[in-house]
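Before the break, one more example. Copy the sequence into your notebook; we will annotate it together after we see the structure.
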Amino acid sequence: MIEIDTRTRWLPTKEERFAEITVNVLGFFDETESAWTAMALEMDLRAWGNTFEEVLKELVNLICTQISFALFKKQPDMILKPADPKWTELYTQVENIATLT
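Here is what the structure looks like once it is written out:
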C-alpha cells in the first residue's frame, strides 16, 4: 500500500468528491542516471528515485498535488495533460509483451 502525505495539501471534503481517476504508470530503471523513473502518462508527471517503491510514492504525491491545485483553482482541466506520445507508445509495447507471457 502506498502512503499519501496529505498534511500540506488542500483536499476536497467527502461531499465534494465525485470522481475517481485511473492513471497508467510507466516505470523503468534509467541506467544513464542510475535511478528509477515512474511516469503518470495521462498527467505528464514524472518522479525519480533510488527504488521503484520510492518513485511510486513520490508520483502519487505529485498526482495528489496536481489534482488538489487544480481543484483549489477551480480549473479541473489542469488535471489531465498527456505525456509525450513516445512514452504512451512504449507503455503500449510493454503492455502487449506482458500479455503474451
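The helical segments are 52-72, 85-100. The CA atoms of residues 70 and 76 lie 5 Å apart. Try to locate both features in your own notes.
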